[in-house]
Amino acid sequence: MRKSLQVSFTAVFAALHTVLYFVSFGLWRNWGIYLEACEGIILGPKIGFLAALLGSSIARMIKPDAFWMFGIVAEPFSVLMVGFLAASKWKPVLAAYAVMLSAYFLHPYGRALPLWTIMDILLSLVLIYPAARFSRNLFKKDVKLMPIAVVLISFVCVATDSLARVFLLVPCGLYGLFYGSFEALYVDFVGAAASSYLEDFLVVIVSLFVVAPILTVLQKARLFEKNGEKK
Question: In 3D, which of 86, 223, 103 has the Cα closest to residue 152?
Answer without folding.
Answer: 86
